[in-house]
Each structure stands twice: as structure tokens, then as C-alpha cells.
TrEMBL record:
Natural source organism: Micromonospora taraxaci
SUPFAM superfamilies recorded: Tricorn protease domain 2
Keywords, ordered alphabetically: Membrane, Transmembrane, Transmembrane helix
Spans traversing the lipid bilayer: 64-87
Region (Disordered): 100-123
Record flagged with keyword Transmembrane: yes
Protein name: Uncharacterized protein
Domain of life: Bacteria
Length: 420
């Protein structure tokens, strides 16, 4: 800037400041200034990254804890061979338990074959005697770790047996006994347990529910359930349905088809007991008679709510419900009376008219009746003795007589094993 004539310009005297800055120096200064600003920590109102990291750490710790707990639980359950069935039913009480194979190294070993169980009449029947299974040929198999049994029957294929325990304060137990003696538990803590004739299904009462499941090997699969009245219990399988007695103190039955919902509203109020099934699917049972206190023998139609299609009220039948129909559907062994004496009766179902032929067949029956063919049957009497019935001999006026079962301990009762 030029000044007035005769005066110096307005710049001060002394050292002059240089304004010449190289581009690289300016760039370096700017970088340094920005780096100082970045290193300054300024408080934030929110820290999304920190929150995400802390949340991830909490989730990881929680998953780790749950995984360790589940691993410990699975280890305990596998060590005991135990898995709960029907969890989440929303009811209180002892759970039904399915138990796997705990230790295959402790299998019982069959004992040597012994004579004494052969049948001179050719009737084949297995027995459980004091935790020992006795086959018709006399072979004995020790069944360890099972309690007293009330029912047993052959598995499909004949490679083992299903065994139902007697009732205890903890309920009933269902075992699978393999043909090498290995015993496994399918159910524990159940109420009434009913097996299908072919051993492929099982129904049981548990608390306020009725369950049905398939039996495959040593497992129960496809369980279905329905709530039932307090006194109801399963009685038998009728095809794929379950016959349910609604009240043990009076007549009243219904048929429940698993998977079709709750118990049907249609109820039969005449049937007292059902003894068996005919080849055409109809049932043979005991119904209430018109006379007070009397009963009738009837053929029932399950497709019409157990309505009787044939009946006869002349035979004097007891109300204990013990009876069995022959494999061809012609003969019925049932408990009744001849005069004042209690007897097992043989009735020809093809002549069920007004006056059916009821022939004394032997002493009164207990437990299962096993028909090995159309004309031969086996049962146990009140004393635990074995009674072999031959239809031809009985009709000829020669009732069966009991014979003691060998090697039965005092106070023990053998159990017949049903086949199909």
C-alpha cells in the first residue's frame, strides 16, 4: 500500500513476519489439528455400541448358563435312563415316566430248562412264577427287578412280553421283557393299564386324563389323551377305540376313539361287563336285566353304542366280570353259579337263544383266560392252581380239575401270559 507523499508507510519497523507457507506444511498442520480434536473424549447422551456389546455379553453368559444346566440335566437323566412322557399337561401329581435301557451289561441270564410245565392236552400257556417266566416247553427265564404282576402278554413277533404290575401306592408299572431277559420300564406311576390284544397299543389312566399310545420296541409313541370323569377307567381295546367304564359301581360305558376329541356324549347305561370280542367285531358282555338284581348275557354292537342285538337272561352269571371268548367266537368261559355253587361255565354263543346251554367247566376263574385254539383254554383258580379246559370233555360231562403249578413260593401267585 502506498502512503502519502513524504511519509513512510504504516508498516512497523523491525523483523518482518514471513507469510510464505509451503503446501506440505499447511497440510501437516491441518492433519495435526484434526488429530488432536479426535483424541478428545466428549461425553455422549447415549452409547449404542456399548449397549450392544453389554447386551451381547449378557446373552452369551445366560446361554452358557442354560446350556450347562441342560447338559447337567441330560447327563443325570441319561445316567438314570429316564425321560418324562406327557410333560406340559397342566396337571398336578406324579408324572408318568418312560424309562430307557439303563445298563445292558446287567441282563439276567435264563436258567436251565426244567420239566413240569408241559401240557398233556397240548394247550400252550406261559406263566410268570415268582419273577420267573415259564414257557410251555418248560424253559425258564428269570425276570429280575420286576415286582408282582397282574397281567402279561406276548409282544408282536414273539420276541418278548409286556407285563403289568399289581397296583401299589405309587400306581402301576408297565414293563417290556425281552426274550433274553432284559427288563425295561415303559410306564411308572399309572392308574389302570390296558393292553391291546396285539400288544401294539396301551391305554392308561393318569390323574384326570386317559392316555393311549403305540408300543414300538421299547418306546411309547403318538400319545393321545382326553379328560375323563373321576371314576372312569379303560377296560379294553375295541379295534382302534378304547372301551371306557364310567363308573365301577354301576352300569355305564362309552367308546373313545383317540384323536377324535373328548369322550363322546353317547353313553351306554345297560352294560355291566364285557368278556370279549367276536370275529365280526361285536362284543360279548353282561347287561342289566329287567328283573331287579338280574343280569343277561348279550351280544353288543359297538357301532350303535353297545346296543344289544342278541341276549339271554337264563344263565346265572356273577358280576365279577371274569370271562373269555374262544378264538373262533363260539365258546364263552364265564364265572357263574350252578344252584348255589360258584363255577366256571361254558356257554355256546351260537345257541344264545332264550335258554343257552351253560355247562359247568371247572372251579371259578381268576385273572386272564387264555384260549390257545378254538377248543382249549387255560385259567387259574382262586388258589392259584392251573386249570386246563377241553371243550369236548366238558360237554361230555367231565369238568376240568385244577393242578398245582410247580415251584410256586408260599404266598405267591402265578400269572398267565396271554398270546394272540
Amino acid at each position: 500500500m502506498s502512503g502519502l507523499p513524504g511519509r513512510a508507510d504504516n508498516l512497523t519497523a523491525g523483523l518482518k513476519r514471513s507469510y510464505e507457507v509451503r503446501p506440505d506444511e499447511l497440510e501437516g498442520a491441518v492433519r495435526e489439528s484434526l488429530s488432536h480434536q479426535v483424541t478428545l473424549a466428549r461425553p455422549l447422551s447415549a452409547d449404542p455400541a456399548g449397549q450392544a456389546i453389554r447386551r451381547a455379553n449378557r446373552i452369551r453368559r445366560r446361554r452358557t448358563g442354560v446350556g450347562l444346566a441342560l447338559a447337567a440335566a441330560v447327563t443325570v437323566l441319561l445316567g438314570a435312563g429316564m425321560v418324562q412322557l406327557g410333560a406340559g399337561t397342566g396337571r398336578d401329581g406324579t408324572p408318568i415316566v418312560v424309562i430307557g435301557d439303563p445298563d445292558r451289561s446287567n441282563r439276567p441270564v435264563p436258567t436251565a430248562s426244567v420239566p413240569g410245565a408241559e401240557s398233556s392236552s397240548g394247550t400252550s400257556a406261559s406263566l410268570i412264577v415268582s419273577e420267573t417266566l415259564v414257557n410251555p416247553d418248560g424253559q425258564r427265564l428269570v425276570l429280575r427287578d420286576i415286582g408282582p404282576a397282574e397281567h402279561a402278554q406276548l409282544l408282536p413277533g414273539g420276541d418278548g412280553w409286556l407285563v403289568v404290575s399289581t397296583p401299589t401306592t405309587a400306581g402301576r408299572t408297565l414293563w417290556v421283557v425281552q426274550d433274553d431277559g432284559l427288563v425295561q420300564v415303559l410306564l411308572a406311576g399309572a392308574g389302570s393299564i390296558v393292553l391291546a390284544p396285539d400288544s401294539r397299543q396301551v391305554a392308561w389312566r393318569d390323574g384326570g386324563d386317559l392316555f393311549v399310545a403305540g408300543v414300538v420296541g421299547t418306546q411309547l409313541i403318538g400319545a393321545a389323551r382326553t379328560p375323563v370323569p373321576a371314576a372312569a377307567e379303560p377296560i379294553r381295546f375295541v379295534g382302534d377305540s378304547v372301551l371306557v367304564r364310567l363308573d365301577t359301581a354301576s352300569a355305564g360305558h362309552t367308546l373313545w376313539r383317540p384323536g377324535a376329541g373328548q369322550l363322546p356324549a353317547a353313553v351306554d347305561r345297560q352294560t355291566l361287563n364285557v368278556y370279549g370280542e367276536l370275529p365280526d367285531g361285536r362284543l360279548v358282555g353282561q347287561t342289566v336285566a329287567t328283573d331287579p338284581g338280574g343280569t343277561c348275557l348279550a351280544v353288543l354292537d359297538p357301532t350303535r353304542h353297545l346296543q344289544p342285538v342278541e341276549s339271554s337272561c337264563d344263565a346265572d352269571l356273577t358280576r365279577d366280570g371274569v370271562g373269555g371268548v374262544s378264538t373262533d367266537g363260539r365258546w364263552l368261559l364265564v364265572n357263574g353259579r350252578v344252584g348255589k355253587a360258584s363255577r366256571a361255565l361254558l356257554i355256546d354263543l351260537r345257541r344264545l337263544g332264550p335258554a343257552p346251554t351253560a355247562v359247568p367247566a371247572g372251579p371259578p376263574m381268576t385273572g386272564a383266560i387264555v384260549w390257545s385254539n378254538d377248543t382249549q383254554a387255560v385259567y387259574l383258580d382262586d388258589g392259584g392252581d392251573l386249570v386246563r379246559v377241553d371243550v369236548g370233555r366238558v360237554r361230555a360231562g367231565k369238568p376240568a380239575t385244577p393242578a398245582p403249578v410247580p415251584d410256586v413260593p408260599a404266598g405267591d401267585r402265578p400269572v398267565l401270559v396271554s398270546s394272540f
